């Protein structure tokens, strides 16, 4: 772990303590101190990441209660031995997916994301992996993320350009385009290929 990530780890821990204290604390003076700790944590993130303090607070300090990871769902869809990727506005490619909505399950979310980003209706057939994002993707975020990869099957639909993606295409493992590494890297795409070809895949975790 480099020094920048160590700073981030300290800031995240301070934020977690402050958030729990603000939610569970009863004494108003203690709550004021927890608020100060949370602000210091946000300042640390802003200073090390060069992201504005207001933006950091929006991403980092807007939740209440005990701090838990965010959920990111990703779909692995295959056709003729190739995997489906969608092209994002910046020209890089990713597995269809995104943040889980609070009012639906993770499985329902990955189905919804595929419909929105790739125009396809799918079934979620198997969980390939449940991963702690910071153990696999860079850069490390100021909040924890749990990534869930699903093997999905297409039941209908066609791609239409939308506000998030401009194109969809199937790729072989030897012809992968530039990936949105913060969302999915080659190691994760290879894992999806392995799951697709396996007769007895066991869900990977961590």
Automatic annotation (TrEMBL):
- The entry's keywords: Hydrolase
* Residue spans crossing the bilayer: none
Q: Taxonomically, which superkingdom?
A: Bacteria
SUPFAM superfamilies in the record, alphabetically?
Nudix
Q: Where is the Nudix hydrolase domain?
A: 68-193
- Cell wall biogenesis/degradation is among the record's keywords: no
Recorded GO molecular functions are:
hydrolase activity
Q: Tell me any Pfam family this protein matches.
A: Nudix_N
Hydrolase listed as a keyword: yes
Q: Return the similarity comment.
A: Belongs to the Nudix hydrolase family.
- The identity of this protein, by name, is NUDIX hydrolase
Organism of this sequence: Merdimonas faecis
């Amino acid at each position: 772990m480099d020094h920048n990530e160590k700073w981030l780890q300290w800031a995240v821990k301070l934020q977690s303590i402050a958030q729990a204290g603000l939610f569970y604390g009863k004494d108003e003076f203690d709550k004021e101190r927890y608020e100060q700790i949370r602000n210091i944590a946000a300042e640390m993130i802003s200073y090390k990441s060069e992201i504005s303090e207001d933006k950091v607070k929006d991403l980092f300090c807007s939740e209440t209660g005990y701090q838990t990871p965010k959920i990111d769902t990703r779909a692995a869809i295959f056709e003729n031995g190739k995997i489906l990727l969608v092209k994002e506005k910046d020209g890089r490619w990713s597995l269809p997916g995104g943040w889980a909505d609070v009012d639906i399950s993770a499985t329902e979310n990955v189905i919804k994301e595929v419909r929105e980003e790739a125009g396809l209706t799918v079934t979620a057939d198997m969980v390939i992996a449940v991963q702690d994002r910071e153990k696999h993707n860079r850069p490390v975020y100021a909040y924890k993320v749990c990534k869930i990869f699903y093997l999905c099957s297409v039941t209908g639909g066609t791609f239409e350009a939308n506000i998030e993606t401009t194109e969809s295409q199937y790729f072989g493992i030897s012809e992968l385009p530039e990936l949105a590494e913060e969302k999915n890297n080659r190691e994760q795409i290879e894992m999806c290929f392995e799951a697709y070809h396996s007769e007895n895949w066991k869900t990977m975790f961590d």
